[in-house]
C-alpha cells in the first residue's frame, strides 16, 4: 500500500464534518437572525442545502472519474483549457490562489471563535480595560489576551501537524465524534425549550443598511451567503483524495459528512431562534452558550462552552491541515510555486504549512482592534467569496465531462450526472452574483485574486519546464 494513502472512510468523514461544523455552528445563529426572518432562514437553508448537495455529488463523482486531479475543486480550472496553454496555467494558479487564501482566512474565523468561547471560563478575555493608547488607536486588555491565545493555538497546531497527517487526522476524528454527540444532545434539550413566542412571526420584517424593509427574496439572498459558510469544507475529503485508501471512500465520506452536518446546522440555527429573543441573539458573541444558559442555567453554559472548545480545536486541526494540503497538491499539478512541494520526513508539506500559518497570523491581528463578532464577520465574507469560484469551476468541469463523454464508457449515467452538474452550476452562479452584489465585498474578492498575480511568472516557468520534461520523456 502507498505510504501516503493512510486516510480511511471514517477519518475522511470526520474531516468533512469537523471542517463544516466548525466556527459556523457557534456564530451563524446570530448572523442568520440578523440577515433574515425565520421564514427567510428556513428557505435559505433549503436552497443552500440542495445546492451544496448537488455540489458535493459533483465533488464525489470527479474524485472517482479523475483520481489523478486531487487537491480540491480549484484544481479543475486548468482542465477547462488546452493542456499546457497559458490560459490553463493562469486559471489553475489563480483558482488555487484564491482557494488557498480562503482557507487560511477561514482558519482565523475558527480560532477567534475559540477565543470567544474561552471567555465563558475566563471573562477577562472580554475586558474593556485600556492597556495602551497610541494616537487614535486604543488597545484593550481583552483584545490583547485574545490575540495572544489565538496566536498560541495556531502555532501549537502547527507543531502537532508536523508530526504527521495521519496522527492529526485521528485527533480530528476524536474531537469530531465528541462534538457530534454533544450537538445532538443540545438539539434534544432545545426542542423541549423551544418557544414560538420567542421566535416571533415567521415573516418578521428585516431591514437593510438604509432602514428600508427587505423583501423575502432579499432576505434569502442575505441568509444564503451566510449559510454557505456552514457548508465550506464539504470538499475536505476531496482535497485529501491523494491520501485516501480508496477513491470510493472520498465520495461516500463527502455525502455522509454533508448530511450529518446539515441536520446539526438546521436543527441548531432554528432552535436557538426559539430560545433567545432576537435582540439578545444578534448581540451575542456565543449564542449557543447563551441559549443553553437560558434553558438550564450556568452549568449548562460551562458544559457547552467546553464542548465548543473541543469542537473548535478539532476544526482548527482539520482546517490547518487543509490549508497546507491545497497549495501542496496544486504545486504537484504544476499550478503553484514549486517551493510548496517541500516535505519533511513524515511527508507533511512543511513549507506550505509554515506559509499558510504565517498568513493566518496576519489575519489574527484583526482581533487587536475588533470585537470577536466583527472579526468573524470580516473573515467570513473574505473566505466565502474565495470559495465560490472553485465550486463553480468544479461544476462546470463536471458538465464538460458529461457533454464530451470523457470518462463515460456508455450513455448510462451521463443524464443523471448532467442534471446534477447543471443544478450545481446554476446554484454556484447565483451565489456568486448574490455574494458580490455589495461593491465593498466584490472589491475585496477581486483584491484577493489580484494579489496572487505577482507570483504567476514563477508558476508559469515551472509549468513550462514540467511540460518540456514530459515531451522529452514521451
Largest sheet: 2 strands, antiparallel
Low-confidence stretches: none
Name the CATH class. Answer: Mainly Alpha
CATH superfamily: Amino acid/polyamine transporter I
Going by CATH, the architecture would be Up-down Bundle
Number of β-strand runs: 2
Shape: globular
CATH topology (fold) name: Amino acid/polyamine transporter I
Q: Span between N and C termini?
A: 28 Å
Q: What topology, given as strand order, has the largest sheet?
A: 1-2
- Which value, in Å, is the CA radius of gyration? 22 Å
Topology:
Elements: H1 9-20, H2 23-35, H3 38-65, H4 86-118, E1 130-134, E2 137-140, H5 141-162, H6 165-193, H7 196-199, H8 216-231, H9 236-239, H10 247-273, H11 278-281, H12 287-296, H13 298-332, H14 350-364, H15 366-369, H16 372-404, H17 414-435, H18 439-450, H19 456-473
Antiparallel strand pairs: 1-2
Helix pairs in contact: 1-6, 1-10, 1-13, 2-4, 2-8, 2-10, 3-8, 3-10, 3-16, 3-17, 4-5, 4-13, 4-14, 4-16, 4-19, 5-13, 5-14, 6-10, 6-13, 8-16, 12-13, 13-14, 16-17, 16-18
